[in-house]
Amino acid sequence: MVQLQGLASNDAVDFDVTWGILEGALREIHTKNASRLSFEELYRNAYKLVLKKKGEELYNRVCGLEQELLRENVRNKVVQMVTPPLILGASGEQVGGQAHLRRADGERFLRVLKDAFADHQICMNMITDVLMYMVGLALFPFWSAEMTFCAYST
């Protein structure tokens, strides 16, 4: 029998406790409070779950959390920038005197969307650093095209 390095076969790993630590850290990353996190400790927790064959469950939880955060935080910021002049302009209706309003609203909308995407990229890079071990060891056996887009199916 092959012993996986770093974790004895009798080491118990409580998934819910370990996930609670990781979930809290991922939320901190999204709220830009990552400076106080120990990425080494987080990586070690993710590594333990993967070695104990909990990679798929970990992936599903991370995916669900990302969907929740995108839906509850990012979507709300972006949707607030959609104004009646933008909607009318998108539908092709020409309302006299509102071209400058549409332009200003469009610029604000694009700025918020760009900032949200930049923040998301930063968060995903940090989360990748924590969970990078999953791709090589845990996810390969059950990887599917559906998993690739989980966070974007909100």
3D structure, described in words:
The longest helix has 41 residues, at 99-139. The chain has helices spanning 15-30, 39-51, 55-79, 84-90, 99-139, 145-148. The protein is elongated, with a radius of gyration of 21 Å. The protein has a single domain (15-146), classed as Cullin Repeats (5 helical Cullin repeat like, Up-down Bundle). With 154 residues, the chain is mainly alpha-helical.
List the SSEs and their pairings:
Blueprint: H1 15-30, H2 39-51, H3 55-79, H4 84-90, H5 99-139, H6 145-148
Characteristics of this structure?
5 helical Cullin repeat like, 69% helix, 154 residues, mainly alpha
The value of Rg in angstroms is: 21 Å
Along the chain, the helix and strand elements come as HHHHHH
> How many individual domains?
1
Could you tell me the number of beta strands? 0
Corresponding CATH superfamily? Cullin Repeats
**Termini separation:** 42 Å
Shape: elongated
What's the helix count? 6
CATH class: Mainly Alpha
The largest β sheet comes out as: none
* Integer average pLDDT: 80
Q: What class do helices, strands and sheet pairing give?
A: mainly alpha
Which CATH architecture? Up-down Bundle
Q: State which percent range the strand residues make up.
A: under 5%
Helix share of residues?
55-70%
Unreliable stretches: 143-148
CATH topology description? 5 helical Cullin repeat like
